[in-house]
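hey so i finally got around to running the thing on that chain from the lab meeting. sorry it took forever, my laptop kept dying and i had to restart like 3 times. anyway pasting the input first so we r on the same page abt which one it is
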Amino acid sequence: MGKVFELVAPCHFGMEAVLKREITDLGYDVTRTENGKVSFAGDAEGIARANVWLRTAERVLLKVGEFKATTYDELFEGTAALPWEEFIPKDGKFWVTKATSVNSRLFSPSDIQSIMKKAMVRRMSRCYGLERFAETGDSYPLRVTLLNDVVTVCLDTSGDSLHKRGYRTMAAKAPITETLAAALILLTPWHGDRILVDPFCGSGTFPIEAAMIAANMAPGMNREFTAQTWDHLVPKKEWYAAVDEANDLLNTKIGTDIQGYDIDPAVIRSARINAEQAGVDHLIHFQQRDVAELSHPKKYGFIITNPPYGERLKDEDGSIAALYRTLGQRFAALDDWSLYVITSFPDAEKCIGRKADRNRKIYNGMMKTYFYQFMGPRPPKRKRPEEKQ
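ok and heres what got predicted. didnt touch it at all, straight out
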């Protein structure tokens, strides 16, 4: 193992436990879990594998340092004290792409960004003996958070957010992000040999993410990352090895029963195109169908869905309530199924017709939503071949 870094993976608030499990399953030690992020120890291989494999992280950040700052002088000195020359070469292009401040005396993002840039230039001028930086080389974007006056400084190894898997070229209105969809699926007991239906599938995100999980498809295997050009930190061979591992473990020759319905034929066309781009179209059955026609002959299936919220419509005509009532009636008619619904519609449980066994508050963007979990019974354990008479 080479040099070990502290890596930080931000995620949706409320999804830390799911991400923590993913990181542990990849073989890395989680060092800290906070609201909306999980930190872990990883080397160059870890940076590549985390970017390629993590389904529920928004990005993978490499922590450069942390210090306290209540004045801009302290921010300047703290930034200038960090070993930038270990990370950024003399021709590197570097800037603070995002600064966020919570409960801190320094709160202006633009001031934080410009002061930190000046401090980095001073440090690197001394180290490299240069007065000016051409910044003609590779990109080194920084993300900085101030929380209770503690400044955490990270390099962004991912670039585009990890929810951009590359398959969703056709998006329906108000889509759920790929990372949140994957996290919600992983919160349920569903796995690839069970039935999954999304009766409001929109651009197909839930069915596509489910199919990728079933096929053990690494979500980042077909996209690029900013750190792929940082050869001195993450050698090229680590990226090749991570993608080779993803190809070796991929299994698209599986049997699945994953279905996506929507009442709008144009939306179903988009969902099919997205599934094709993801390479899982053969694992999903998309169909133009009203929720009132939801049915399935088999037992122990799952509905995982993101129905219309009515947030902007305010449901003045009662159509949203009617939709949830229909969903509740169709769910009740299914044999021993489970229902998982993410929504901000306040009367969801009342209209579905029963109280959820569990519910979890989740922020979808800036919108407060709830993930209602109506749990069906577990199917009986399958007998092993040697037990069958």
